[in-house]
Design goal:
single chain; globular; Rossmann fold; 41% helix; alpha/beta; 6 strands; 7 helices
């Protein structure tokens, strides 16, 4: 069974993005093995830290290397990719062999996709991911699901995906699976 690693772009416990990812996980049920990356301890990128790779970075790299595909669930911060997600991508896109900075990274040729949950800024962020993922040498599946946070979620903390969003997640899941076959 194919292994898909989910990267939830909000580190908040029970975040809307976490709930969004759980909807996508249902779309993959019985079709792929899903795991979630714990990247909460990845430090801010610095070349000073690269020579002795931090344990959290190595664990993230190992999880990425073991996966057949990576599915990101991204919030939008100020109409941009969240800095914490970009930081993780900076670490993961660095060459594994520091003596060859142009060599392969943990993300090299990995199949990737992204879903975006926000109340604005979807398109600028989608375009940023469309530019970034090929640049860092991933095989980007451009079947992006975007949606807004339902109004009631701000009161009760529960993200509710509409039938259209669930259908789009299913379509995205099928496209991702097709890309790794």
């Amino acid at each position: 069974m194919k292994k898909i690693l989910f990267v939830v772009g909000s580190l908040r416990e029970g975040s809307f993005d976490q709930q969004f990812a759980q909807n996508a996980e249902k779309a993959l049920e019985g079709k792929a093995e899903v795991s979630y990356l714990d990247w909460s301890q990845v430090p801010v990128f610095s070349q000073d830290l690269e020579a002795n790779t931090p344990a959290a970075v190595q664990a993230a790299r190992d999880a990425v290397l073991a996966a057949d595909a990576i599915w990101f669930f991204s919030p939008v911060y100020n109409f941009a990719i969240p800095g914490s997600v970009k930081n993780l991508l900076d670490w993961l896109s660095r060459a594994l062999d520091l003596s060859d900075p142009t060599g392969p990274s943990a993300l090299n040729e990995k199949v990737t996709t992204v879903s975006i949950l926000a109340n604005g800024g979807h398109e600028p962020v989608a375009d940023a991911y469309r530019a970034l993922f090929p640049f860092i040498r991933t095989q980007f599946v451009d079947e992006i699901t975007t949606t807004q946070v339902n109004d009631s979620a701000w009161v009760d903390g529960k993200f509710v995906a509409t039938d259209d969003v669930l259908a789009n997640l299913d379509k995205q899941a099928q496209a991702l699976l097709a890309a790794i076959d």
